[in-house]
Request: fold
Amino acid sequence: MLSAKNLFQEILDDDESFRLFCSIAAGGESQGGWENGRIAALVPASQRALAPKIARHGADEDKHGRIFDALLRKRGLAPVEVPHETDYTMLLEKYGIGLAHEQLGREEPLAEGDIITYLAHSRVTEQRASEQMRLLRKYFADHPDLGRAVRMISNDEDNHLAYCHEELLRFARSGHGRTIQSILRECALGEIRVYRDVSLAVMDHMGRILGWPRAKAAALAAGIHAVYAYERLVGWRRMVSLAPPERRDALGGPAVPAPEYG
Reply:
């Protein structure tokens, strides 16, 4: 039976597909950690109160990268090079979503508009991350090796999403509402396209590693295209709405340390 749980289980049970899965995840999280760290360092004077929260966001992402690396080491595996076509973070930048790495690499302070762009981009991508981790938590929260990691990362992603809602609403109240909605829509429509392309690329690599028959690979690709069609039509709207989060000041404290893996 072709189900999300069975698909994840198949990928996790095989060393080579697990290596690719963790390597892709670790690479994306580490890149997110770098981006947030640079943004925290370059926050304009008018928004310096945000810097500790942005830094906390980056620390969480760094932690997630270390967790995926630790899961590999626990199985005696080394990371593999991430194929370009599966690099979600870099492809988002390629299509102009979020702040460019070239800009973040300079020592020039960001403008207030850059912070709004960062928060809107994060609100969209953290929606995706939160949904993906909730799916993994649904199936693997009690897994002997993955359970602690899945629960921790899922909780962090929910915190990140709450923080984005809270800060964007603050900017909206100060008169930036139309700008925020415009950026959110642009980011959401771009993200769903990148997510489709990355999903197809990841499934292609997994299919070759695991020897999936042509019919199975075609069915998975059709499913990815169907999700994209839905998101392109109406699903993107869930990524642009803003509401006061249940978790207030979600990034107001220090990052929770990563669990130890023997």
Remarks:
- The chain has eight helices and no strands.
- The CA atoms of residues 97 and 186 lie 8 Å apart.
- Residues 147-210 form the longest helix (64 residues).
